[in-house]
Amino acid sequence: MIHKATFWLLFIKLLQYFLAIDAEIPAVIVFGDSSVDTGNNNELSTILRSNFEPYGRDFFGGEPTGRFSNGRLPSDFISEAFGLKPVVPAFLNPNYNIDDFATGVCFASAGTGYDNATSDTLSVLPLWKEVEYYKQYQQQLRDYVGDERANTILEEAVYLISIGTNDFLENYYARHKRRLEFSIEEYQYFLIGIANDFIKELYNLGARRISLGGLPPMGCLPLERTRNIMFKRQCIEEYNQVAREFNMKLANLVDRLNTELKGIQLLLSNPYDILLEMIQKPSSFGFDNADIGCCATGYLEMGYMCDQLNPFTCKDADKYVFWDAFHPTERTNGLVAAHLMKKWSTKFL
């Protein structure tokens, strides 16, 4: 069996091979939710945090950084594959400054969504606030490296966006208000309108290389399967169908904006198929379990319910697709990053 450290070294080399990294990427700039939040929620008055053990137990030094995983997130692997730092620092983390942020920065907030009502649910950063912090970052960067260099960094950086799952699972399906206002298709188009405006705002602020993340097979998350206990914890097909439909609408948005916005390189980075394949055929990827998480019982725990005192937490997270009942393990994150970047090598860079 390959030693874990050796595995990750070979893995990063594979990522770099896929990219054939001749293109110089000066920075990775991240927006979104818990799939890419590297610790911003630590600084917010919210219960949606993960800056405690056993979160981060496989991160560098075993540090619980606020990432909702046992280790790194896809954005971290992508940064390292571009020849940048192996982690993307959170903008609100007081231990970092503009020297750290010059090569990558994360504005994501766990629990947020396109819809402001989604972020209000758990008192986290709405998407518009992430953009406001990005504007602050731009000014800090200009002060640090000068206008000319800052403009180059902002234009040539890769922008990663991973958001949307909470809008459906923690807002539309969990609360009555949006369901009274919108049919599910109307709500999808409502979110697409916000995504359209968001991407155009980033473009007007200088972004050109943008990866727009699609939805995962959200009906197969362990927590949603547990809610489907009457049907033997099968995946909720309705939710998966909504994810597929929304991803198709995102793809249409990407096609349209690539035509409308001169010089933009906008790519839909869709994790749906690769994650569903891991869930349906875990052994093909070296996993033993895909229907529950590693942390605690794995059926419903995340955040503070996933703590170091729970005796049921698994010993080896690499055997699990999911870390807690909602979020993937580090190994899954790495495989998803490799899958997406393989496509970038021919379509994005």
Can you describe this structure in just a few lines?
Helix content is 44%, strand content 9%.
Structural features, described:
This protein is an alpha/beta fold and 349 residues long. The protein has one domain (24-345): Rossmann fold, CATH 3.40.50. Helices cover 44% and strands 9% of the residues. It has 13 helices and seven strands. The protein has a five-stranded parallel beta sheet with strand order 2-1-3-4-5, with helices on both faces. A two-stranded parallel ribbon has the order 6-7. Helix 1 packs across helix 2 (74-81), helix 5 packs across helix 6 (147-156) and helix 9 (184-204) runs parallel beside helix 11 (237-260). The radius of gyration is 19 Å and the shape is globular. The two termini are 35 Å apart. The mean pLDDT is 93. It comes from Chenopodium quinoa. Residues 1-23 form the signal peptide. Keywords: Signal. This is GDSL esterase/lipase. Belongs to the 'GDSL' lipolytic enzyme family.
How are the SSEs ordered, and which strands pair?
Elements: H1 4-19, E1 28-32, H2 74-81, H3 98-101, E2 104-106, H4 116-122, H5 127-145, H6 147-156, E3 158-162, H7 165-172, H8 177-181, H9 184-204, E4 209-213, H10 222-227, H11 237-260, E5 265-269, H12 272-280, E6 289-293, E7 320-322, H13 330-347
Parallel strand pairs: 1-2, 1-3, 3-4, 4-5, 6-7
The largest β sheet comes out as:
5 strands, parallel
The CATH homologous superfamily is named SGNH hydrolase
The CATH topology comes to: Rossmann fold
How many domains is the backbone divided into? 1
For the termini, the CA-CA separation is 35 Å
CATH architecture: 3-Layer(aba) Sandwich
In order across it, which strands form the biggest sheet? 2-1-3-4-5
Tally of DSSP β-strands = 7
Approximate helicity band: 40-55%
Number of helices: 13
Q: What's the pLDDT, averaged over the residues?
A: 93
Q: So what's the overall shape?
A: globular
The SSE string, one letter per element, is: HEHHEHHHEHHHEHHEHEEH
Signal peptide: 1-23
GO molecular function, one term: hydrolase activity, acting on ester bonds
Protein name: GDSL esterase/lipase
Keywords: Signal
